[in-house]
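Example (one chain per record):
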Amino acid sequence: VRYRADDDQRSAHYDELLAAEARALKNAKGLHSKKEVPIHRVADISGDTNKAKQFLPFLQRAGRSEAIVEFVASGSRVRLYLPKETCLITFLLSGISCPRAPRNVPSGAIEGEPFGEEALTFTKELCMQREVEVEVEAIDKAGNFIGWLFVGDVNLSVALVKEGLSSVHFTAERSQYYQSLVSAEEEAKKDKIKMWANYEEPKDIVVVEEAERKVNYKDVVVTEVGEEMKFYAQHVETGPQLEKLMEELRTEMVANPPLQGAYTPHKGDLCAAKFVDEEWYRAKVEKVAGNQANILYVDYGNREVIPTARLAVLPSTFHSLPTQAHEYALAFVSVPEDVEAKKDAQEAFLKDVLNKQLALNVEYKNQGQDMVILLTSDKSADIGLGLVTDGLVMVDNRREKRLQKLVTDYKKAQDAAKNARLNLWQYGDFTADDAVEFGYKR
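Predicted structure:
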């Protein structure tokens, strides 16, 4: 910018600037050079798992790496440019659980969590477009890097916790910064700031002595496995009665074949249904839509959408035996949110139990659902405990005194799986990351 000598806006160092510009022109430096501008190639590896795995060992060995914060998506999620490696990465803060900020996606706006907006603002103000240092620990399944970010001497994870905008995550226990995080959280709780505004110190809870754990194992055969560790099982003791009923039903349907289309099913009906093996089974109508019906085979637990022409009236003599497929859910465990991890857990559970005779004991009820443990037929192995040991499912905390021995055993197995980083614990923090803005897609 050129200024007249009498211009009030002219800098006191204006003459020096002109002289510096003249020297640069004479020496053909920088933008005054006649050489072609060098091309700087930047690799964007955000959300690219394969590339992230290739870069990971280099970043881990480098210790602290210099970076520039290009974009802040939430309090604990940023996009970084690494000058030395000339690459862009997605970086997640380690050791904390930070509330998500509201964001817009193609399907519409996603509402944020309490204090998510405040956490986003805090991180933006502290490090947006600033030079920082990062220590990379690992990557998650979406190809995002996980580690620690420093703005000068400030550890961003600790700063967020200290401001009451994040809580300490259990994965921080293995970190050298764990004590700093715990101290920061205790200080935030004491001052009752942000997310700890309504925090109350835990009080000693008087637990009424409960009855001893009831043990009454039943031999069952698992006939169908559903989602969320739910399944259907037949009781072995009533197996002969079911076999007799099925034989008599099929004899009856052969002797008196139903007229196709004569039966009009309604929701809730107990009827006869012809399965793909062309045999008749007892079924319950769950939904009717046109000439299609959703049915549950009440003695086996499997469901099917079937043409109504393959349904028939169930003779009253076959109504007396109670339905033989009993629905249960595995006690003390829950499945992860991550789609792939959930699939791994489901497949392992299916392999362990389907069409096998096992020993079942009801431990408690959850919203009317019988929650059970399953042992192998010789009672030598606990199926649920095995899934926990392999790091495939998480342990649910139960406070009933009568269940504490079992809960303790399950938690010990989970701790061992965490330390060994098995399956869903392999990246430490297994929380599903759905940051569309960073290229991650479900």
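Caption: The longest strand covers residues 64-74.
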